[in-house]
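Lecture 7, part B: from sequences to assemblies.

Below are the input chains for today's worked example.
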Amino acid sequence: MTWIQFWTLFQREISRFLKVVMQTVFAPFISSFLYLLVFGVTLGQHVQLNGELSYLAYLIPGLMMMGLINNSYQNSSSSIVNMKFTGDLEDLRVVPLSNQTIVWAMALAAWVRGMIVALVTWLVGSLFMYWQSGKLLGLAHPGIFLFFSLVAGLSFGHIGIAMALWSKTMDQLSAFSSFVLLPLIYLGGVFISLEKLSPFWRAVAQWNPLLYFIEGFRYSFLGYCNVSIERAMLISVFGLGFFYWQALRSLRPGRFSRW
Amino acid sequence: MATKALEVSALTKTYGTTCAINNLSFSIEAGEIFGLLGPNGAGKTSLISILTTLEEPSSGGAKIFGHDVLTQSDFTKPLLGVVPQEIVTHGFFEVQEILQFQSGYYGVRKNQEHIDYLLNKLSLWDHRHKKVKQLSGGMKRRLMIAKALVHKPKLLLLDEPTAGVDIELREGLWDFVREMHREGLTILLTTHYLQEAETLCDRIAVINKGELCCLRPTREIITDLSRREIVLTTNSDRSFEHPLLVSQTQNQLKLLVPAKMQVGDILQDLGVTAAEIVDLQVKEGGLEEAMKFLLKGVRT
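Predicted structure of the full complex, as structure tokens:
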């Protein structure tokens, strides 16, 4: 892998989503805004959490991670699907780009898009919070914030690559998004605290890998979360390794054909 | 011994029960323009897919300038330029961006001078800020060629580069291919336009159902496998006899003879004197006829 090749593909991926910025950044911003308004501000006033924590402060990191995960996944998967239609994907195999270069450059660009959406959500959420309580939502652990954002963004960038390459139709790709990713995100503690669940569902939720990404990220803001932070870090890193391996496995000859 | 530009050895590719390439072996010398011909489904594109690592062979292998395409693709890929059969549309990107990205994929930095040269040479300069979908069919083809040449490869694979291109543009592309060849590029051309192969290629391999039918210099194929049509008008009323005589009407004789036969010998065999000849027309056979004979064993 040379840095020129890595940088070129990374730049191409960034340039691709910036060319459709309305779709890739502004649309997620609108949905985050609505979630914050409806759940955080309006319904949140009726939700009681332990301690003095407001529901809005609890919700913002969850929504940020949701935006980060969704957009990282969508960036790499939609880029590959587009390339299947345009024929660019064959080019990626024909040129001397190693699988490592493809996987890391695309995942890093996916993380950048995810981070833009997450940071915009943070900004809007903080404005709502300031308006509601006169306080801003600050970071308790910047290092942990960077760790979880990177691990989650790269992981879901890798899943996007693998799913887009494995899928033979658009239907297969959207099935993964609708039937696997979305339920795991929604049941991963974005909107509800584990403390509010019955013991049975709390036990079930422990098996959701996304819970650890979301709770670990929340810890970086609030200084506490519903799972052990060490465990969350360990599972996230294991997830990154597993999804990276899946992305590498998906880059096999024969998978680069056009749709 | 000089390294071959391409060496294909006992290459086989099967898709399920279908055999696309069957034990194919041939080589291309550096500096050649080599034609790979065959009907649809002959295995031409499968071969190019293997050379470009889009597909893996079922058995056998191929070397590009001595490097194995499977195990040494880091060495073979920079040596290869590929013009695919189907146009790549590149979605949102402009012509200039596409060429810049392509340079970067090959690890080539500061390549703007060469990109500008290609844009000018292929008449794309005025269109460098357009997206691919805004280009005409001919411009898209030229862009594919510019992309294939952006990293200065040594072997250019042209997979039906003039499919769907009008005659004027086709001839322009031929001139460009000749120029690239003069500059030292080795070219492997697959095409359905036999005139294109006949005009450009030093040697031709014909494959059918994945197997090599013929590999010879272009001129030899035409000479050995096509026929000349000789139409002779005489001022004589006598009747002539010859095994290759096709028709005889009034004073006109029509013969179909192997292209390697000399006209003088035919006239001598017929027993025609110079004083009897009013008019003599010779129409040379072409690669198309030779191909039909090779693939179907029939004369048209």
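Note for the exam: The mean pLDDT of chain A is 91. Keep this in mind when comparing with the next example.
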